[in-house]
Amino acid sequence: MTNLPSILLAEDNPNDVELTLEALGQHNLANRVAIAHDGVEAMEYLRREGAFSDREPGDPAVVLLDIKMPRKDGLQVLREIRTDPALRRLPVVILTSSREEQDLITSYDLGVNAYVVKPVDFPSFIDAVKELGMFWAVINERPPKGVK
Amino acid sequence: MSVWLQRIFEEGTFMGDRSKASPRKSVEQELVESEARYRALAESSPLAVFVVSKGKVSLANPACVKLFGASSPDELLGKSFLSLFAPDSQHVVRQLLDAASGEAIPSVDAQITRVDLAAVDVSITASPMLQDGLAAFNIVLQDGSEAKLLAAQAAKLVAIVQASPNPIFIKGLDEVITSWNPAAEVLFGYTADEMIGCSVEVLMPPGHVGEPLELIDRIVAGHPVERYEAQRLRKDGRVIDVALTLSAVRDEMGGVSAIVVMTEDITERKHAETEVRRLNAELEQRVLDRTAQLDAANKELEAFTYSVSHDLRAPLRHISGFSSLLSERADESLDEKSRHYVDTIATSVAGMGVLIDDLLEFSRSGRAELQITDVDMEQALSEALEPLRLETADRDIEWSVGPLPRVVGDHGLLRQVWVNLVGNAVKFSRGRSTARIEIGVMDRDGESPHGAPTEDVFYVRDNGVGFDMQYADKLFGVFQRLHSTAEFEGTGIGLANVQRIIHRLGGRVWAEAEPESGATFYFALPRRMEPLS
Lengths: 148, 533
What we know:
A: alpha/beta; B: five-stranded antiparallel β-sheet; disordered N terminus
């Protein structure tokens, strides 16, 4: 097993980052999480550019993507992932506060793998994030590498 | 013998042309042939013709027989010529014949006496002739009553045309104007003297050349031209809008000999039409502007709702998360009071979360576009019941769900109505050992005068705590609650949402209740033949 983070969490709100890590920590997944603070950082991480140009090669098992982020929002990140030949099969889960129908439609149209609304109630939030982490980082089979 | 008769004898008959006659034929022979030709002519003439020889009628043509009301020429032949005329006329007739003996052949008015003794006005023309070689008179009678009638009718028509407020003129196929009434003078500014003999081209504004000929073609081809809209030029240079109605004047052969043009000045109407079009365009623009403003306002509202859903929920989640983490971490060290505080934070956060969700739902039901279709109400209800039945699996509830008709409405919104109404029934019957919830449709309620129901009335009845009817008007207001949160949880948005949805669908909603005896909520949806567009 590699040390490579299995989860890329793209989330601009530090409180949400902390709570998400707390939830993942309860399943020992917290140390396998990379953080991007907005959409631009998320794409730089995935493409090993900018601040992430030195990171070990390889894709995360899943990207947990907030929608509302500065500079580049989650839907734009999703669009870029799906149109990038090297990234297009990457599992992406939208993790957001928005239950807006338009966001759901756009996300699914762009080929999102799952769409999860962050529960306000903390125990439910913990459950949701734990299950997401377990499923995508552990249970789910990743797409094969190097196949175009 | 008169000079005239002498000339006849010298030159031969006035009916024949001597120069063309065969030289072998005798004068007598030619006379016989000439008389035969004359008879043939007289027989076929539409004018009444008779011949007077020696003061007696010696020939009468069919038109003459008809004019006198006789049944055959025999009734007239041999009669004294003067006896055919009324006594008062005999004198002038005699004078006429005397005059006809000379050079002049005048025409006079007289009265004849018909066989039935009726008097008829005629005009007489007499001309001397030869019959059987003897001097005679050829008398032509024209029915004066007919001529007078025609003249009177013509005069009447002229008077009508002259007095008509409608501009009327007559033109030939060559476009030259032959008649021009006073109304035309007023409309075009030209007098009849100026226009008669002039071409209609004078009335054409620049660029209209050729149009009148095209209209004439249509008329000649037998197509009527009614209220043909065109423009014409007045004498003062002003261009006016006109509607032309053209009709053909046809000769006996059916050919078009002239064209009557009736002109209606529609300048004002045209102006009004232009004004109406301008106002319509302006109104349309205003509607577009308003719609754009509304769209913008809606967009703003949507943006606001979006940030409410996102931005308000995030801090709530954080409060919930960190207070929960705090209570876990400080678990042992928290005294009872501190624990109560932390729990209250969690409860309030949860309540506010529900409130935000309900508000969002309420806002969505107001601005979402209606998806009007044929809705299976039983399906919509069962979708609403499913989660409720799961939630109340541990309760003793007697459900009674009647058959429901299909309606025209929005499936998703109607499901929301059922969720709220049945949810209330479940909630407010919580204290009953056995709750009874009845859902159905009223039997033939809301009948129209013709007997056919105009709406379907649905109801949800429970045996719960009910409410005092004096507060019924508050039921459907936003945030209005008739019970304390401690008694029954809730945000006071559910029924407001129900009312908004039913109103949007063109229906109405009301309730009946008694404290401690339960409540019944009704909503009525209009029956429609066609789904709303």
